[in-house]
User: What shape does this take?
Amino acid sequence: MNEKVEKIEKYLDTLFPNPHCELIYHSDWELLIAVVLSAQSTDKRVNSVTPILFSQYPTLKDLKEAELKDLERILRPIGSFRKKAYYVKEIARRLDEDYSGVLPKDRVELESLPGVGRKTVNVVLSELYNYPAIAVDTHVERVSKRLYLAALKDSPYHVEERLMKKFSKDVWGKRHLQMVLFGRYYCKAVKPLCNDCPLKEICRRSKQEKKKNS
Ligand code: SF4
Assistant: This one.
């Protein structure tokens, strides 16, 4: 295995030996909705609204019959709340009416639901069924590019393809979670914690900073 990739994996395993998804959910469809709500938001913010949402509308039937304006009021703190309220109501309707309340496991069917894209499907399949997948969110993309696991010009889909080649398939889900947590708490977009980072020597950002200061 490539030495650089080995170093990254070793460090991720040291930092996060048992990574887990930080979204709170109690059923498969709650996870799907929580992941949809997390677009352009944070897990923390999503976790602050989903207990209210799911306690006021505990079933898919309740959610599909909810008034949009009531959903918008609950979802307001997470941003893009009008669009997300529509997605929630429509996902609940489709799951209830087209799938008898059972979340499909098929990627194409999942991606046909409103607001559900490739990243969301990867998170859901990997989290619920241990399906090998690497979901590329903003953290995974940033960390991959800083560590030369991907090129700067790569789209999230290209980043995913590159990571799938670099990491062995049995750890794809784990590496995704570790990279999310590393990006969220260490390799942050602004003011990353570089001082004690053992990946400095193989980091694009660190190299650029060194150049700037020399
Ligand atoms: S040195 Fe800084 S920017 Fe580079 S990987 Fe480590 S934390 Fe991220």
